[in-house]
Amino acid sequence: MFSHGADSAHDAGAVGVSSGGATVPTRFVWPYGGKRVFVSGSFTRWSEHLPMSPVEGCPTVFQTICSLSPGIHEYKFFVDGEWRHDERQPTISGEFGIVNTLYLTREFNQINALLSLSTPGSRMNMDVDNENFQRTVTLSDGTVSEGTPRVSEASIQISRCCVSEYLNLHTCYDLLPDSGKVIALDINLPVKQSFHILHEQGIPVAPLWDSFRGQFVGLLSPLDFILILRELETHGSNLTEEQLETHTISAWKEAKRQTYGRNDGQWRPHQHLLHATPYESLRDIAVKLLQNGISTVPVIYSSSSDGSFPQLLHLASLSGILKCICRYFKNSTGNLPILNQPVCSIPLGSWVPKIGDPNSRPLAMLRPNASLSSALNMLVQAGVSSIPIVDENDALLDTYSRSDITALAKDKVYTHVRLDEMTIHQALQLGQDANTPFGFFNGQRCQMCLRSDPLLKVMERLANPGVRRVFIVEAGSKRVEGIISLSDIFKFLLSL
């Protein structure tokens, strides 16, 4: 029942560092709140309670550091007059009931930088041989892993606490740019003309305005265009190319609602549109986006209690909120130490399954000669924003995203091509310069990282406008190893 080695230190919510002497400085963490928290154990002969202090910026997380001799230790927390144990750490039934256990050893230097809660820019006051630690990590099952240890649950809780506090204290006003424009479309515009506007303006999403009702009633997104094109090629479709010239956004949205048998979450002509106000916290907006499965929500302000005369201020997105998080914590990673950890050590994203794993699902990837129709079907069925385009060795060449579909509006390409005959290669070239070779990553649209890159780097890539997914590739070969999306980041940070 006892865990062993470096992994046990992180499992116990404590960090042990071999200082070369008889004791090991060890950090204990209680991340579950309280007013007065102490730790006691076999190392104090259960007669002394060591006080724990709240972590700066995280009042629900308590910590203390004490020097322990190598060996097996039992401990419990005394929280507001009640004995508690951490159910997420190793436990054993002992003389004092259920207690947590910790096994410290001097064989290897054991440190979890995620629990380095020192002031920004400073280091822990402990001597650490990082090179020795990175070379060998002893896991609880006795195996030895080359590379980085897993992240502790206590570390994750600390980081989540800091992020939640920041997001709760900041509002949508922090997302508003100093200057800029927001384009809205009238619901009586023809669908064809609307997508020409999206393509020419280089924007993926536009709010919809009902001038008769004086309200914003929905959003027009690339998914609409994808479904329209699929509808055009469906046998027996009631929507022809000629009708597309005059078919209005309003008519399409109503047809879509009836066809798919449910209300479109981004089309609410007879009720208030899902939106954000300038006074909402960034956390509430992020949760709203995630729970409704949408990427963008309009920020609308009205001085009237009935919501009349609304003003469109901005389009709030997860990438915009993530940019605020990165900007705030970038120079103070001591307050959010998980940002410095490699993404492979964090339970985050989707990864290429290991050989023999029966419960794993392969990543959705396509070859450049696959049909555009297959790419669109995959985007809709998998509910993802983009698909990696790879060669025969699964090396990343490019990515096809939902927003790329608006390139078909250029020169009315959609009127004289068939989706099952056009390749992804050809479709991508529509949105690129004629002299740009295929496989040249298109600006910020296709972002790569390595599994050893820190979480902050991945987050900064995802914070770029238009980027919804970062592809984790193998160094040198660029073989796709995993995918981390915007929603992955926020579900992880907000524990949703």
* Quaternary class: single chain
- End-to-end separation in angstroms reads 30 Å
Determine and state the CATH class of the largest domain: Alpha Beta
Low-confidence stretches: 1-20, 107-147, 434-443
CATH superfamily of the largest domain: CBS-domain
What structural class results from the helix and strand content? alpha+beta
Under CATH, the topology of the largest domain can be stated as CBS-domain
Provide the number of structural domains: 3
Overall 3D form: globular
Helix content: 25-40%
Q: What is the CATH architecture descriptor of the largest domain?
A: Roll
Portion in beta strands: 15-25%
**For the residues shown, what is the average pLDDT?**
76
Output the radius of gyration.
27 Å
Q: Specify the number of helices.
A: 13
Query: Sheet with the most strands?
Result: 6 strands, antiparallel
SS elements, strand count: 22
Give an overview in words.
The protein is of the alpha+beta class and 496 residues long. It folds into three domains: 6-151, Immunoglobulins (Immunoglobulin-like), CATH 2.60.40; 172-322, CBS-domain (Roll); 336-493, CBS-domain, CATH 3.10.580.10. It is 25% helix and 22% strand. The protein has 13 helices and 22 strands. A hairpin with an 8-residue loop joins β2 and β3 (50-51). α9 (318-329) crosses α12 (455-462). The longest helix has 17 residues, at 153-169. The chain is globular and about 85 Å long.
